[in-house]
Amino acid sequence: MIWLFLDFDGVLHPGLCDPADYLCCLPRLEDVLRTHSSVLIVVSSSWRHSYAMEEIRQLFSPDLHPRVAGATPPSQPGTSFARFTEIRAWLSMNARSDDQWLALDDSAFEFPRSCPNLLHCNGKTGLTPALATDLDARLKALMDQSPI
Fold first, then answer.
1. What does the alpha-carbon distance between residue 85 and residue 107 come to, in Å, rounded to a whole number?
2. How far apart are CA 9 and CA 104, in angstroms?
3. What is the DSSP letter of 13?
4. Closest of 111, 30, 17 to residue 65, by C-alpha
5. What predicted TM-score, i.e. pTM, was given to this entire model?
6. Hey, which of 4, 20, 56, 96 has its CA 20 to 30 A from 47?
7. What are phi and psi of 4, to 5 degrees?
8. What is the CA radius of gyration of the chain?
9. Contact, 50 vs 63, CB < 8 A?
10. Is 103 exposed, middle or buried (CB count within 10 Å of its CB: 0-12, 13-18, 19+)?
11. Is the distance from CB of 56 to CB of 22 less than 8 angstroms?
């Protein structure tokens, strides 16, 4: 099992876009996820503070609803590398600390420098075709490392 910790703003759509364009990159992400059935999604986006998990799950195509496994807990204000800390807390709380994981996020400052688990997205563009190809390759590499 591989966990994908997913940011929305700057990933599933450009960070500063018209609300009509929200989630414009989601179909690209879903296409990648459909080729990796062992990847489950944990929402690390700030959207988790404004929407119930069931509302967030409904943003995805119906075939992916079961793969939206939850959301990270909030970190304490002023926490260094807040997103990374939230991810590690979620993994620990769910007894998944030894599992493979990847974060798709546009906020590199939320992670330790050179974090091997971060796939950094340009917040001005969201998930581009090139980055989707990178995501696919990273997920394949993680699958190759997973015990059978």
1. 13
2. 11
3. B
4. 30
5. 0.95
6. 96
7. -110, 110
8. 14
9. no
10. buried
11. no
Report residue 85 as tokens.
Answer: 């800390």
Q: What are the structural domain ranges in the chain?
A: 2-145
As given in the structure block, the two tokens for residue 100 are 């493979």
Instruction: Determine the residue type at 141.
Output: A
How far, in Å, CA of 85 to CA of 141, rounded? 24
Residue 60 CA to residue 29 CA, distance in Å, equals 10
Tokens of 123: 């917040």
* Residue 145, pLDDT score: 84
Please report which residue ranges of the chain form alpha helices under DSSP H: 26-34, 53-57, 82-93, 129-145
Q: Domain 2-145 falls in which CATH fold?
A: Rossmann fold (3.40.50)
One digit per residue, pLDDT tens: the chain, 148 residues? 999 999 999 999 999 899 999 999 999 999 999 999 999 999 999 999 999 999 999 999 999 999 999 999 998 888 889 999 999 999 999 999 999 999 999 999 999 999 999 999 999 999 999 999 999 999 999 988 865 4
